[in-house]
Amino acid sequence: MSIAVTTDIVETARVRHDLWPVATAALGRAMTGAILLAGDFKNHENVSLRIKGDGPLGVVHVDAFSDNTVRGYVDEPHVDVPLKHAGKLDVGAAVGHNGEVQVTRFTQLAQDYTSTSPIQSGEVAEDLAYYLYTSEQVPSTISLGVLVDPDYHTVVAGGFIVQALPDATDEALAMVETNINELGPVTEYLKAYPDGKGLVEKVLDGLTVNEVYNEPISFKCRCSRDRFAGVLMTLREDDKKALLEDETTELVCHYCNEKYHFSREELEDMFAPKGLIQ
């Protein structure tokens, strides 16, 4: 079993992308899920998750890295859909009920692996559990949640994944299922215990628990000014000339919304032919 408390990560993403509530919930669930999928501390995996539904959010993009960092965005951050019963955010309607979940695993031990499965509900947790069962043949229970205040701030966010080992007994599986049903929504537990303390013991009550890994996680992008400069250098000559018509060129990272500015003088120097050194 693995758990992830992602309140700070989700709030960082909300602020960076100016997310509306249902977009915060969808991206927050996806980032939490990707962190859990990448939580193989032995193989040091990076995981890219794409949820491509037919809802107004467009594609949900998330990358989770083996150093316990994550980044992500949605195509359309300003989406509003009718609330479900009891005033709950309808993530499924925003993501869409038709489409696919695509997961790519990058590991140092084997070739990169990409697999897909159809979206089941658009609620993310059920979709990831179905993906693991059909594409990786791993029976899993996943619970993901994001609670957003009326003022759009992230109150709590997090989740957990429980996977059955090949030698798991029916009695043990039934015990865990009962514990999860009694637990209820993970956000309710995190409201009472914001750091997730005791969650593993609650889900695995009646079983022996041994902690093997406990590390902080954070929102972090891989973008940089140098990387964007490298992209600019790959442009065609006509495109480079078009950029030089403006005083300043602004480039924006999709994943973190960081903005990079290049003055005309900087671009002229970058694009200038470099002579051979005699």
From TrEMBL:
It comes from the Bacteria. The keyword Zinc applies. CDD domains: Hsp33. Its main location: cytoplasm. GO terms for cellular component: cytoplasm. GO terms for molecular function: protein folding chaperone; unfolded protein binding. One of its GO terms (biological process) is protein refolding. Under oxidizing conditions two disulfide bonds are formed involving the reactive cysteines. Under reducing conditions zinc is bound to the reactive cysteines and the protein is inactive. SUPFAM superfamilies: Hsp33 domain, HSP33 redox switch-like. Pfam families: HSP33. The keyword Plastid does not apply. Keywords: Chaperone, Cytoplasm, Disulfide bond, Redox-active center, Zinc. Gene3D superfamilies: Hsp33 domain, HSP33 redox switch-like. Disulfide bonds join 221-223, 253-256. It is found in: Cytoplasm. InterPro entries: Heat_shock_Hsp33 (IPR000397), Heat_shock_Hsp33_C (IPR016154), Heat_shock_Hsp33_N (IPR016153). Belongs to the HSP33 family. Redox regulated molecular chaperone. Protects both thermally unfolding and oxidatively damaged proteins from irreversible aggregation. Plays an important role in the bacterial defense system toward oxidative stress. This is 33 kDa chaperonin.
